[in-house]
Write a structure and sequence with these properties.
The complex is a heterooctamer, with two copies of chain A, two copies of chain B, two copies of chain C and two copies of chain D.
Chain B lengths: L23 H13 L3 E6 L2 H5 L1 E2 L2 E2 L5 E4 L4 H14 L5 E7 H6 L1 H9 L4 E7 L34 H7 L4 E6 L3 H13 L3 E7 L3 H4 L6 H10 L6 E3 L3 E3 L15 H6 L9 H18 L1
Parallel strand pairs in B: 1-4, 1-5, 5-6, 6-8, 7-8
Antiparallel strand pairs in B: 2-3, 7-9, 9-10
Chain C lengths: L1 E8 L4 H14 L3 E5 L10 E9 L14 E4 L14 E5 L8 E5 L1 H7 L3 E2 L2 E2 L2 H12 L3 H11 L2 H17 L1 E4 L1
Parallel strand pairs in C: 1-4, 4-5, 5-6
Antiparallel strand pairs in C: 1-3, 2-3, 6-9, 7-8
Chain D lengths: L1 E5 H11 L4 E4 L6 H12 L6 E4 L3 H13 L4 E5 L1 H6 L1 H9 L5 E6 L13 H4 L7 E4 L3 H18 L3 E6 L7 E5 L24 E2 L5 H16 L1 H6 L10 E4 L6 E5 L3 H14 L4 E6 L1 E3 L3 H5 L4 E6 L9 H9 L4 E6 L8 H12 L6 E2 L1
Parallel strand pairs in D: 2-3, 2-4, 4-5, 5-7, 6-7, 11-12, 11-14, 14-15, 15-16
Antiparallel strand pairs in D: 1-8, 6-13, 10-12
Helix pairs in contact in D: 1-2, 1-7, 3-5, 10-13
Classes of the chains: A alpha+beta, B alpha/beta, C alpha/beta, D alpha/beta.
Bound molecules: thiamine diphosphate (2 copies), iron/sulfur cluster (6 copies) and magnesium ion (2 copies).
One magnesium ion binds next to helix 4 of chain F.
Chain lengths: 83, 289, 174, 361, 361, 289, 83, 174
């Protein structure tokens, strides 16, 4: 029975950062801290603080929603380097 | 409407889920966590959320969560809500189901509703059976192409929310992942009420509809702006919700064509088709007014 | 019997590549079997597909645990899977790992031809081209297989991708 | 206290004695009077349970599943088409290891529509992981329902009690109803409880091995049932089988359900005529009472009130797969065809003479 | 014509070749590609059938039932939970003697949710009166589907073809597709057709005996299936079983489904080592190929990819109930746990050495 | 409206059925025969009609008739209608089902409706599961006593017809065995239309409701006269039907009390209860206007 | 299979006239031939002709609906004789 | 063991009569079993119910084919069933058939007491009274049984009906 009980845990799908083709790059200088990117990031990898936002690249899938939603163009999608 | 800044930052969706990039369900689930927090106890019938909820011993969602058979969601919640009441627990059963689950489980949904059992049911409607590979459901948009409607679906979208309204649900609303704050305020209201609460959430799906993962929110908003998806709330009386209000005026609407042309599932539509749909949209607005 | 494992990310077309190669094998007068990963994976996750090629009918249906050839559709995969096989075919500008390695820049081939879906270069036909070369298939067998799989403009582009990779794939031993 | 009760009312009494907390059920003949009686008990405050009128059997078991997952003691009842309609949920409940109890009033599966007893319906549960008991009369219907709750909660497997439609369900007979249970049914730990504040996820995608592990664990716990039945501490003693006049039997009849009473009367008649015949009545079908069948070393007749098309009587197949002696199977009384003492006398005599064919009548 | 086809596409090809007139189905992994392909064929006019997107599996089989009762050749496909959800209708269709054909892509029953192969699902049909075939590969999936229509319509019983989920359903292999059928599938008289002007009532309340008669008649017609399979006139010859290297076998493995291919490879390896081992592959589970099992006189190993909790592997039970020799059962690969050639080599060697236990792994 | 004299006298209900005295279903079935004649092919899910249809080799109804599982009616009709079309037969599948069948089979009903499959569905609503012994169904009248609602049903009657209207059925009507001519003219109209046609037929049941077998028609008429059962028709637009029209005017209505007090199932109701129900009836009329 | 196919036949429940406690007696002199009794007789045992109606007492169950529906009081329910 | 078959029309209460008598038998210190007809009958149709009474536990559950006593709730039944049993108890003003016959006008008793439902006199308790007398039960056992079955005013009336029939039932032999 135990094997069918799961507990909350980050990375249920592994390091989903690997899925990225494009990477969101944050430009704090343009940011107005509206938090829309936080609200609409489906992966919940954006954290907000008084200083701006941080993106957890280990899990960010690079969907690009944050960049689209940001009216300030403070997030930019750039092609992921193959490493 | 709660300001974004004041929304709970506690994470109920944990990064690194199995959802596709830009998945609408996850947006909805995030909002759910913000409002209901640890009062939400999820009942999840088969669907994409089955996968999204996690793999093996790792759960992606920080809710107590029961996976349940496809047609059974609201009935399971009936049992759970009874347990919570009897044992004095503060949980609210939330049935988080897909549009497909509302097809096969429609009798179940209807039954729980007429009993006014204590639960919140959210149909996160991506307009197809996505988890099994994009088959048409009752709520699939008219003329949309799916793997089981290769020439476009011949029937109109089933109007779930109106139908639940005729069931005399205690609370009924439509919502959209493109307007999370509106959805959040509806969840806030639903949380306060006791009884059967129903929210029909519009959830555009990138691979299912054929648009880029970055456009989930945009497509959702286009649906509202062109009037195809109308946000409303029944809480004693029926009201068109703020984001939709401007589009009661037809002239203010985004041309339907823009919404349609942004999606691969509509690639085969002619301009005639679009006009036909437009007419139906007008009728829909009339019906709600 | 030749046993091949294809490692790709969901959306890259690993399964399709296996099927195309199975058809190509049939065109070569062989028996073949293409097995997709048995999973409920979402777009983006790591996917394993399998391919068996043989001169005799293939009876077994189990997955391949010890492949003769491993095909790697993205360099990133090297970071998450331990790859060990006699022969490796990789989508890369460089060989990247040890052993008998065939490498080809399938991503660029796909991107150049506009084979992109949801942000991803669809490298399946390019990689199929490289593999076909490694397996010693004729390009004709492969082109026919691609023709049966895609139609119209898409078929054309994919044939181009396959041909290019078939030509450009390089061998390296270390 | 001795009362005249139908089998269905006896089950309802047991549910009341067990202090069941949640009941959801959907009507179907001949199960209905269980549900009606329970609705009445709840209404009158005799039973402090929630009674939910659901819209189908699938939902009945789904609601019971939810309540049980939430920690409540839960019950449902059904029959034939109802059982088939909730079939998916039956599997789900078993794999979830929830100690749900269900009465199955056996009835023929249609078409043609037929409301009379046949055991094919309850036997569709035989692979699922449900413990399956089959009562002979109203007394056992009551007792096995009570035992059911105890054992289900001890091994975390759901428990089905079969009652022959009409023959047990609607036949009013003398039943000894316990006045109280004196701690017979304490609350027990569950494998899991779904509740706010405990963010576990149950039933999602796992490794393939998990599905296998789960079945192995169920098999293991199923094996404990025999011992637990024998040592239940209930006011009457029970075992997986009833052995009747088996002492020196050269011929043994194996069967289950209401007509075993008729068979016993027939056996008495034959015994008087000097035939050394006895009976091994299956009180449980799951776990299958292997140990009792294995040790038989006489001529065995299995009388099946069920049928698996393309193979034969189901119990006969299972007995044959285990027994170390000659086993003959006969399929009888399908569709509720009445088979009584006289029939059994002549059936058993034909069997003894080696003249019995495969169907009766 | 030789093509590379998955098992699911092979089934769709067969449905097209059979000129099926009505299809209703509901998606479920791993069955979906059958349905999608058929939808596409209908859309493109390659297949002149009505394709109905229903709202559940219960309705899928109900619609197919209606179409078949109205005289059409009808098809559906499902898997695991879908099969359980339509379970009531499965019984209804069989008792109604309608020659419906259904593909069952085998899949594990949850919870936990698990989409991989296991045969427990299709075996829930084993009492119902459906003919049950189990394919080993895509070629058989196609052939048995075509045979299915023929035989179903000859004996007026529904026909289920099993395909192992993913292993057959999604594995693309070489399949020889017949160009045409040359009168292989003529239209046949039905027991009844529902149509205006013919006021018959089907399935209502009757004497109890009718339910019994119906099962007897089904049993009889089921018995004709073996002969009909052997003399079907199909382009390839088939029988209820496949015998592989049985000539002088001291050890015989009985199993069914996709992994039998792996077993054959394992048997070849052991044969090379001098072990006299062969295999009796069940191509049909119903009718159960009794005549082939009865005549075995060697050591038998049954490998079950299914489980009946509280008893054991289902095929092992049935084989034991019939065989006249030593039968050992092992339950393996539940939940889709991968079992391949190497496993079988070592499993069979353990068996020969008498060291095999009940579960693998 | 066809004059009684001109109605077909051919008998599709044959004397000597197993129905109870005064059975409402039989009245409905008679009307069906008059209008559809031998074009009707009946699909009958489990219910009283299962018994009424005959025993052994004797059928009471002169229609081709398929008995079908409880939840399956409309889906079976989907298959049949496809067969009739393909084979060029002039039959119309008529699903004749009880209110109970519309509970368990609601997903099936809903599915056939949104597909607009070609059939007539008649829910003969005796407001309980009668065949199994008077258990409450979704459409059981508010506060009515049944064997599973011994203290009276707590939920309001499910408004099936309105719900089917929201499903965009091609034709929707309510009818009553107390007004057979109205029912007949609705059947006439339904017969002319293609697609999914739905009629919700009010069918008071003597043993189930507790009134004398002679009063079936009277009780049915009282329901209409007190406004509790409203006859209407949707055929492009929604219209109150002639027999109900007078009762749009509240003052014209029969006192609800008379309807209530005529039935044993309501014996336990207080005058308060009746007032409460009266209020709901007013709301219902408002909703329809 | 045959045993589950039924054909139309009067009296599926036997001679249901036996079920009667009360018997409808027709008074032709009061009848206006409106045929309402025919329309509403659930058992379909009333036949109409120019001369009036006839009741098939072999099957009439005595429900009493005809008597209630008849505005002319041309049908009267009388207690059935036990015979 | 005494085996009884009760013939009644649906709605007359044959099943209830059997149950009441079973309870009465229990009150008499006996074992008993009441079996309703296993059917889907509507109100009005002929119904068979069975009753077994014994000094030892009753194990069998099959129907009674050859009853010791047949109870007939309506004279009309004589027209449709061939009744043959050693003892007959009939609701009638006269014996009506041959054999050992106990007769009582249960219909009048019920009608007089207003025991009517949907036009039918409910003769079950009156007939139970007659049968109890034939079986040699005390009237007390029967009254208690009725008291457990009905409540309030209804119980009272039914007890009255039973008592009256218990008193008035007449024996006749021919
Ligand atoms: C009885 C049954 N039938 C079919 C399925 C297969 N199935 C699983 S998820 C799914 C589709 C879910 O669609 P929807 O509810 O819209 O959710 P989505 O995947 O779109 O989020 C289906 C058909 C099942 N699990 N159970
Ligand atoms: C799956 C299933 N569940 C339950 C039943 C039992 N059943 C048969 S008829 C019936 C009630 C029918 O009620 P309704 O549809 O209202 O028809 P009515 O008898 O009132 O005419 C029930 C519950 C069944 N046949 N199948
Ligand atoms: S959306 Fe843009 S502006 Fe707003 S917080 Fe995010 S980065 Fe800053
Ligand atoms: S790209 Fe997508 S996943 Fe990454 S931070 Fe932006 S919204 Fe979140
Ligand atoms: S298919 Fe659509 S709904 Fe499903 S996980 Fe992917 S994005 Fe989300
Ligand atoms: S119970 Fe009511 S609906 Fe059923 S047959 Fe009797 S009168 Fe008709
Ligand atoms: S209802 Fe009265 S008046 Fe009219 S036809 Fe019948 S008997 Fe004559
Ligand atoms: S009493 Fe009833 S059954 Fe007899 S004729 Fe009148 S309406 Fe018809
Ligand atoms: Mg969906
Ligand atoms: Mg009803």
């Amino acid at each position: 029975m135990e094997c069918m009980i799961a507990k909350p845990s980050k990375g249920a799908a592994g390091k989903t950062g690997l899925w990225r083709t494009f990477k969101p790059i944050y430009h704090p200088e343009r940011c107005n801290l509206c938090q829309l990117c936080w609200l609409y990031c489906p992966e919940n990898v954006i954290d907000v603080s008084e200083d701006g936002i941080t993106i957890d690249y280990e899990y960010c899938k690079g969907c690009g929603i944050c960049a689209k939603i940001c009216v300030k163009n403070a997030i930019e999608m750039v092609r992921e380097e193959e490493t | 409407m709660v300001a974004i800044k004041d929304l709970s930052k506690e994470k109920f969706v944990l990064p690194g889920t199995t959802a596709c990039q830009g998945c609408p369900h996850v947006l909805g689930l995030k909002a759910l966590g913000m409002v209901l927090g640890d009062r939400a106890v999820l009942v999840v019938p088969a669907g994409c959320t089955t996968i999204i909820a996690g793999l093996k011993d790792r759960a992606s969602l920080k809710f107590p969560l029961l996976h349940v058979p496809f047609a059974s969601g609201p009935a399971v919640a009936t049992g759970l809500s009874s347990a919570f009441k009897r044992l004095g627990k503060y949980g609210i059963p939330v049935v988080w189901m897909g549009d497909g689950a509302s097809d096969i489980g429609f009798a179940t949904l209807s039954g729980a509703c007429i009993r006014k059992d204590d639960m919140i049911v959210i149909v996160s409607d991506n307009e197809a059976y996505m988890n099994t590979g994009i088959q048409a459901s009752g709520t699939t948009f008219w003329k949309a192409k799916t793997t089981t409607s290769p020439a476009g679906k011949k029937e109109e979208k089933k109007d779930l929310a109106l139908i639940m309204l005729m069931h005399r649900a205690d609370y009924v609303a439509t919502a959209s992942v493109g307007y999370l704050q509106d959805f959040i305020s509806k969840l806030e209201r639903a949380k306060e009420i006791e009884g059967f609460r129903f929210i029909h959430l519009h959830s555009p799906c990138p691979p299912g509809w054929g648009f880029d993962s970055s456009e989930t929110v945009e497509i959702a908003r286009m649906a509202v702006k062109c009037g195809a998806w109308i946000l409303w709330e029944f809480d004693g009386e029926l009201k068109i919700s703020a984001p939709s209000r401007p589009y009661a005026d037809k002239s203010k609407r985004l041309p339907l064509k823009e919404y349609i042309r942004a999606q691969r599932r509509f690639r085969h539509l002619s301009d005639e088709d679009i006009k036909e749909i437009e007419k139906k949209i007008d009728e829909q607005w009339k019906a709600l007014k | 019997m030749l046993e091949v494992m294809i490692l790709s990310f969901g959306g890259q077309g690993g399964v399709t590549a296996a099927r195309i190669l199975a058809i190509a094998a049939l065109n070569e007068g062989k028996f073949a079997q293409a097995i997709p990963q048995f999973g409920a994976e979402r777009r983006g996750a790591l996917v394993r597909s399998y391919l068996r090629i043989s001169d005799r009918p293939i009876r077994r249906h189990s997955s391949i645990k010890d492949p003769d050839v491993v095909a790697i559709f993205s360099e990133k995969i090297l970071g998450i899977v331990d790859v060990s096989a006699e022969t490796v075919v990789i989508n890369s500008k460089e060989p990247k790992i040890k052993g008998r390695v065939y490498y080809v820049d399938a991503s660029s081939i796909a991107l150049d031809l506009g084979l992109i879906s949801a942000g991803w270069p669809i490298v399946n036909t390019a990689m199929a081209g490289a593999m076909a070369r490694v397996f010693g298939f004729s390009i004709e067998s492969l082109k026919k297989a691609i023709g049966e799989t895609f139609s119209g403009k898409l078929a054309e582009l994919n044939v181009k991708a396959a041909e290019k990779a078939y030509r450009e794939v390089k061998e390296w031993n270390a | 206290m001795r009362k005249i009760l139908t089998g269905n009312y006896a089950v309802a009494e047991a549910v009341k004695l067990a202090d069941v907390e949640f009941i959801a059920a959907y009507p179907i003949t001949p199960q209905t009077t269980i549900v009606e009686r329970l609705a009445e008990m709840v209404e009158r405050g005799e039973l402090n349970a929630e009674f939910v009128r659901v819209e189908s059997e699938h939902s009945a078991l789904a609601a019971v599943y939810g309540a049980s997952a939430g920690g409540l003691r839960a019950f449902t009842a059904t029959s034939s088409h109802g059982l088939l309609y909730m079939y998916e949920m039956c599997w789900w409940v078993a794999n979830s290891r929830l100690p749900v109890v269900m009465a199955v009033v056996t009835r023929t599966i249609g078409p043609p529509w037929n409301i009379h007893t046949e055991h094919t319906d309850i036997l569709t549960l035989r692979d699922t992981g449900w413990i399956i008991a089959m009562s002979e009369n109203a007394q056992e219907a009551l007792d096995l329902t009570l035992l059911g709750f105890k054992i289900a909660e001890q091994v975390n497997l759901p428990f089905a009690i079969g009652l022959d439609g009409f023959q047990v369900s609607h036949t009013a007979e003398v039943v000894d109803v316990p006045e109280s249970l004196d701690g017979f049914l304490p609350k027990r730990e569950r494998f899991f409880v779904i509740e706010p504040g405990n963010p576990i996820t149950v039933g999602g995608l796992t490794e393939n091995e998990c599905s296998m592990t789960i079945r192995k664990e169920m098999a293991k716990d199923m094996e404990r049932v025999g011992e637990l039945v024998r040592n239940s501490g209930y006011v009457r003693d029970y075992d997986l089988v009833e052995e009747y006049r088996m002492e020196d039997a050269e011929y043994v009849v194996i069967s289950m359900g209401a007509w075993c009473g008729d068979m016993k009367d027939a056996i008495d008649i034959l015994r008087e005529k000097g035939v050394q015949i006895g009976m091994l009545r299956l009180r449980f079908v799951r776990p299958f009472p292997k140990e009792f069948v294995e040790k038989l070393d006489c001529k065995v007749l299995v009388v099946d009130r069920n049928y698996s098309v393309g193979l034969g009587g189901i119990i006969a197949t299972e007995v044959k797969s285990i027994a170390n002696c000659d086993v003959h199977g006969i399929v009888a009384g399908l569709g509720g065809v009445d088979v009584g003492v006289d029939d059994f006398v002549s059936m058993f005599r034909k069997f003894v003479r080696g003249e019995l064919k495969g169907w009766w009548p």
